[in-house]
Automatic annotation (TrEMBL):
Chain ranges of the Aspartate/glutamate/uridylate kinase domain: 7-233
Job description of the protein: Catalyzes the transfer of a phosphate group to glutamate to form L-glutamate 5-phosphate.
Reactions performed catalytically: L-glutamate + ATP = L-glutamyl 5-phosphate + ADP
GO cellular component annotations of the record: cytosol
Annotated localization: Cytoplasm
Gene name of this polypeptide: proB
InterPro entries tied to this protein: AceGlu_kinase-like_sf, Asp/Glu/Uridylate_kinase, G5K_ProB, Glu/AcGlu_kinase, Glu_5kinase, Glu_5kinase/COase_Synthase, Glutamate_5-kinase_CS, PUA-like_sf
Keywords: Amino-acid biosynthesis, ATP-binding, Cytoplasm, Kinase, Nucleotide-binding, Proline biosynthesis, Transferase
Biological process terms in GO annotation: L-proline biosynthetic process
Binding site for substrate: S52, D135, N147
Residues reported in the UniProt entry to bind ATP: K12, S167, D168, T209, G210, G211, M212, R213, T214, K215
Protein's name according to its UniProt entry: Glutamate 5-kinase
Pathway given in the UniProt record: Amino-acid biosynthesis; L-proline biosynthesis; L-glutamate 5-semialdehyde from L-glutamate: step 1/2
Family membership: Belongs to the glutamate 5-kinase family.
Amino acid sequence: MSQFSWQRIVIKVGSALIAPEGNGCSSRYLLSIAKFIIHCRMQGCQVVLVSSGSVAAGADAFDGSHQAGPALNKAMAAKGQMEMMAAWQRLFDFPIAQMLLTQGDLQDRSRYRSIKETAFELLTNNILPVVNENDAVTPDALKVGDNDNLSAMIASAINADALIICSDIDGLYDKNPRLHEDATKIQQVAAIDGSVLAMAGGPGSSVGTGGMRTKLEAAEKATAHGIRTFIVNGRSEQAMYALQQGQNPGTEFLPRAEPLQEGAHWLTHTARAQGEIVVTNGSESRLQEDGESLKHTDILDVVGDFSSGDTVLIRAKNGTKLAKATTQHSSCVLSLITRETSGDALLSLTVDKTPILSNQNIAILETS
């Protein structure tokens, strides 16, 4: 790789490449991707593969005459996961390993660390980790929802140098190229702002769950951690060869010059808020200077049901999102404080002895 000197990468492959007809696995588009992975490993670059496709790969084993539903999709995923792993293993002469994850795994700090430890142990032993969402058993509330965002979370967890999202389109365009002949591909994106997000269209495939919007969300997560990100056409053998040569065949998203630290990134882009603490509009400056200075008298409202140790969103009365943090008190306790009378002074004193937030577990959000 003449231009890109990567030590560790994550490559994401979607359902449209695994099972392009939505009816079982096909090696049609996987061969060139497998060659790229092999090339990277031969160059001493560690690779983690995030592979969608279990539902699409398992669809052909089920009677499609009855209406599809969550139970059928889970059954398809259970069947298709075996097919998908077998399809990848046939393309490699080295061992691969399966890692099935959920938002719940990523949400819990100790399980998140366990994911990192397992991935690094596999990589150290030259085993290719193949990551997918555990669609066979996971309820919607505990799902990441798409493997674009999952791949960015994994890339951040293992401190990857690059995230490569293989799609069925050449990259990001200023308008939908399937509808507009004059659409222009964006070669490089320095920062993902509102104008870039506006370029995202709807889902581009009938067998995948992620459209361009989720790919941009993934790029935003990854670049915030200092990870160079690409959206490339995984159907194109030339595109994969260009990456081998250190060239950009799609759209490149540049990493932030000052990446978020790991803890702040996990809170901002991986941990899902279980509730909200609404505070006075004047709390923003004190949060930025010292999160532990937030007092019970600053709380206007508590939204949702959460426990001590959960991630919460801190927002101002005017709706501005100020921070995400690990709360040191439950929603029940904080709700009681907001409704306290003079006879409840003991409860307030107890809370003041243990700050509502800890400076070790808070991420200030960027506001426009």
